[in-house]
Amino acid sequence: MAERSAETDADRRTGTTAATPAPEPTAPPRRSGAPLVGNTLTYVRQGIDFLDTLQEHGDVVSYRALGEEFVAVFDPDIVESVLVGRNDEFSKGDFETAFGELIAPDGVAFSEGETWRRQRQLLQSEFTPAQVQSYAETMVDETDALAADWRDGEVVELRETLSTFTLGVLTEALFDLDLDNERAGVVREATLALADIADPTTFALHSVLPSWLPSPSGRRYERAMDDLNELIERLVDERRDADDRDDLLSTLARAEYPDGERMAPNVVRDQLVTFLFAGHETTATSLTYACWLLAGHPDVRERLDAELERELGDSDPTFLDLPSLDVTEAIVNEAMRLYPPITILYREPHEALTLGGYRIPEDATLQLSAYGIHRDERWWSDPETFDPERWLADRDRPEYAYFPFGGGPRHCLGMRFAMTELQLALATLAQRVEFERVTESLDPTMSVTLDPGEVAVRVRKR
Ligand code: HEM
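Above: inputs. Below: predicted complex with protoporphyrin IX containing FE.
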């Protein structure tokens, strides 16, 4: 997603720039809750459905839950304004930072200001089109190996299988590292333990109970992170001596900015954890949803097969084929529209301000709801239907009616990597297998990513 100049169309449409004399701001509509706990219990019990009901109150809705004052945003123009034009007026905020503290507080996803800028500059050299192109063959090879491993008629649980797969692609491509089962298991366990602790129920409990009170998920998480830290230390040590390599792990092991300043060891650790966590579960859930949706829509599958036959014949897809694989891309986009892995983006204003005519207090946590906006019938006809065709037709909708990778200066650093992997993996899998649904319906829950739960499919070799 392109970065933009300070004042955007969205700012002008929402009347949020200093240049436009705005009418007197009012408080946003409020969803009331129980005394003291606010909407915590409903939030915890209903998760994503609760957030859905907020939209009934308007495009900007305030409520209290989990000990926080939230303002949910369902207007694409306001989202654009917050992420792009007025990005400097916000930080990720306390709610997101509390989550970051659990994982990698000094990594690029949670740092702020000048520290963030320097980190981002250093790291984005690994994600240029040329770099991502150099990872493409690994992506296809790993997918080929995955499909080769499946027997005809085998029932496969996609979410778990694809998590291991995307972790393999990530470590191989970015770190030039073939993690053996034991090492991969350490990273997987840390991811699962995080999902456990970040479950809304547990998170809510943490906000009510004193933090020193040990919980089973808390202890599991601590153990998993100790093991992960040990693993990362070993990897960095192993790589530090190999100074002729230019992969991300080597860049971090050298721990040096272009001006010669050194990155502190805890920051190196945090960057690695950031990539391990941000880079594999997100892509795995997207691919899971895409494969499952495809399994339920033979008409879409036919269009995909025709495209792959026409554009690739018997050859494997390459990076250079991607611009001609429109249906493949449309399927990936449509899967992420219906099931954005990151359902909500969080921001907190540095000081009280006005957004879309509403007064937003300084301590409020903005929730930019990708899930809600992606299913809003003002921008998407028949929004609950999986219809990749909509991406192939002319479209006229606000740019931020779709923002699975965020936007503005802090948009997903791995977006190009993820889109390349998703399209290449989907095309490679489709050339080799068909899926039949065993799990007939999904009931996703909000965790670190939008968790589909168990997704079983039967594999038919082609
Ligand atoms: C389908 C897959 C993915 C999705 C949907 C996704 C989504 C996102 C979103 C929404 C953000 C912005 C969060 C915010 O503004 O608050 C983000 C940031 C980030 N993502 Fe991704 N991501 C994906 C894959 C990846 C991959 C593969 C990598 C790395 C290899 C990655 C690395 C990052 C990093 C480092 C950031 C923080 C950027 C910054 O703050 O400057 N992501 N991602």
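The pocket of protoporphyrin IX containing FE is lined by residues 108-109, 120, 274-275, 278-279, 282-283, 286, 341-342, 345, 404-406, 410, 412-414, 417-418 (CB under 6 Å).
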